[in-house]
Design brief:
The structure is a single chain. By secondary structure, the chain is mainly alpha-helical. The chain has 21 helices and nine strands. It folds into four domains: 106 residues, Rossmann fold (3-Layer(aba) Sandwich), CATH 3.40.50; 106 residues, Glutamyl-tRNA Synthetase, domain 3 (Alpha-Beta Complex), CATH 3.90.800.10; 87 residues, Glutamyl-trna Synthetase, Domain 2 (Glutamyl-tRNA Synthetase, domain 2); 137 residues, Arc Repressor Mutant, subunit A, CATH 1.10.10. It has a three-stranded antiparallel β-sheet. Strand 5 and strand 6 form a beta hairpin.
Length: 493
């Protein structure tokens, strides 16, 4: 048997370090067994998936040295490798499940579903809805079907008993069927959910081992059941521990920079980031801290993975990156690294139009453009003393901007201007007054190049990191403030 593993990211935002972490371990496991590593794009979310996000995933994984044998850009015998191009395959399999009695069309409305869950909540029952809970009166079912009501396809699931999952790291896992929903397999727009597409694609692409995050443990019974319905062999499952913040909470962009783009923009070396991700819950046989990807693949053993939540510590990564710079890069290599990082024609070419109208001598360039070549600006509370806003309003403004920017799919000046205009109207501020603290947070100065252009050039990850940094410099947002901000933010719609 040829070992085949895969990574299946969704192109719905900045490429996440968690994706790279799982990709790294799938790659190492495949190479340890002389197998193949496949990249599949799960782009069935028509609203949030973008081509730009997909390209960032490909670029960031390649930057880290994580190459794949088959994928949307390199092809392979099991394509297409984008789920949006495999719709007919999923429909065919969903129809077969319906014909065999393993799935059914559900015409329940959103309001009806909420009412069903509320009644179960009041009765102190599991909120998982079973086929019998969702069943309509036969006459009503026929009426809705005849009138062309929208429907989803759901799978049949048991109401009682226990599902046993054999996990490569955790051994026997038991999940009570009472906790498992009659999962949606096909959405009302005809697109598959993760659960159907994941199972069908893994089988058709010959995936033998599935290494994924532990957040998928509760979904494993649905996947095992689908394999049984189709009469297929279930791949070996391995649920990896989740990356954690230093406070042991799940790694999230609200507390830590999570985008690979951020670390690339900050000037981390790819080999240092890959090395550090390899240390997340795993260790070399000799316990050394510093090792190459080739060395990790040569020594890899999945059973050396610790189930304790690995802590993603930015200070430790920074230390390791410094070791790489000092020990592995001579002057010529350091020069090449600097040029590849920021001092290259493409990036400098974006910056020149911003500073050209403002310089009289070449020596004016660096003071004007310095923030484009920096990490987090050296700002303090005193940097914001000239801003004529109450502290809470200032924090709320910056926090709202972070949240709005998190939802921007196509990162460009026009899109950012639209978000800024809307928030300026909400805070009843003129654009100049609204952008004053943003100038300081993003550029480190009250007087610099256009902050909108700067944010467009810096990118979403670095822009949001600088805004969050300013929030922390200003004292951060307390739990009570966070609740107030979130309530007011929701009112924006």
């Amino acid at each position: 048997m040829t070992v085949r593993t895969r990574i299946a990211p969704s192109p719905t935002g900045d490429p996440h370090v968690g994706t790279a972490y799982i990709a790294l371990f799938n790659l190492c496991f495949a190479r340890q067994h002389g197998g193949q590593f496949i990249l599949r794009i799960e782009d069935t979310d028509r609203v949030r998936s973008t081509q730009a996000s997909e390209q960032m995933i490909l670029d960031s994984l390649r930057w880290l040295g994580l190459d794949w044998d088959e994928g949307p850009d390199v092809g392979g015998p099991h394509g297409p490798y984008r789920q949006s191009e495999r719709g007919a395959i999923y429909t065919e399999h969903a129809d077969w499940l319906i014909e065999q009695g393993h799935a059914f069309k559900c015409y329940r409305t959103a309001d009806e579903l909420e009412a069903l869950r509320e009644s179960r909540r009041e009765a102190g029952l599991h909120l998982a809805l079973k086929p019998q809970d969702l069943a309509l009166d036969p006459a009503e079912q026929s009426r809705r079907e005849a009138e062309g009501y929208p429907y989803v396809v759901r799978m049949q699931v048991p109401s009682d008993g226990v599902c046993v999952i054999d996990d490569m790291l955790r051994g026997r896992i038991e999940v009570d069927w009472a906790q498992v929903d009659a999962q949606i397999l096909l959405k009302s727009d005809g697109m598959p959910t993760y659960h159907l597409a994941n199972v069908v694609d893994d089988h058709l692409m010959g995936i033998t081992h599935v290494l994924r995050g532990e957040e998928w443990i509760n979904s494993a019974p649905k996947h095992k059941l689908l394999y049984e319905y189709f009469g297929w062999t279930l791949p070996q499952l391995c649920h990896m521990p989740l990356l954690r913040n230093p406070d042991k909470s799940k790694l999230s962009k609200r507390k830590n920079p999570t985008s690979i783009n951020y670390y690339r923009r900050m000037g981390f070396l790819p080999q240092a980031v890959t090395n550090y991700l390899g240390r997340m819950g795993w260790s070399m046989p000799d316990d050394r801290e510093k090792f190459s990807l080739d060395e990790m693949m040569a020594s890899f053993d999945i059973h050396r993975v610790s189930l304790g939540g690995p802590v993603f510590d930015l200070e430790k990564l920074t230390w390791l990156n410094g070791v790489y710079i000092r020990e592995d890069l001579d002057d010529a290599a350091l020069m090449r690294a600097l040029q590849a990082w920021a001092f290259n024609e493409r990036y400098v070419g974006e910056i020149l139009p911003q500073i050209r109208p403002r310089i009289s001598t070449l020596s004016d360039a660096m003071p004007l453009a310095g923030h484009f070549f920096a990490g987090l600006p050296a700002v303090s509370e005193t940097s914001f003393e000239g801003i004529d806003l109450e502290r809470e309003t200032l924090l709320e403004l910056l926090q709202f901007l972070v949240w709005r920017f998190e939802a921007v799919g196509d990162w460009n000046k026009e899109a950012l201007l639209g978000e800024v205009k809307e928030l300026a109207g909400h805070f009843e501020l003129k654009m100049k007054a609204f952008l004053a603290p943003v100038f300081i947070a993003v550029t480190g100065s009250a007087h610099s190049t256009s902050v909108l252009d700067a944010m467009a050039i810096l990118g979403s990850d670095m822009t949001r990191a600088r805004l969050r940094h300013a929030i922390e410099v200003l004292g951060g947002v307390s739990k009570k403030q966070a609740k107030r901000f979130e309530k007011r933010y929701r009112e924006l719609g």
